[in-house]
Design goal:
With 71 residues, the protein is an all-alpha fold. It comes from Alicyclobacillus mengziensis. Pfam families: HTH_3. Keywords: DNA-binding.
């Protein structure tokens, strides 16, 4: 799920949830909800902002497979 990929990439880049929120302009509570699968359908605009901070193409966050994510 998208929340798992965001969390994995965020941790691989040694970013706290607060830092990802600050850099992306997305509320920390909203990011937390995504990572905890409480918010499973974030807008494309939000995904784009998160992907930009994590330095990955959007499709990496949106893929439905659960393979290993390169760091």
């Amino acid at each position: 799920m998208i929340g798992d990929r965001i969390r994995q990439l965020r941790r691989a880049r040694r970013l706290s949830l607060s830092e990802l929120a600050k850099r992306s302009g997305v509320a920390k509570s909203y990011l937390s909800a995504i990572e905890r699968h409480k918010q499973v359908n974030p807008s494309v605009h939000i995904v784009e902002r998160i992907a930009s901070v994590l330095d990955v193409p959007m499709h990496v966050l949106l893929e439905s497979t659960t393979g290993h994510i390169r760091q």
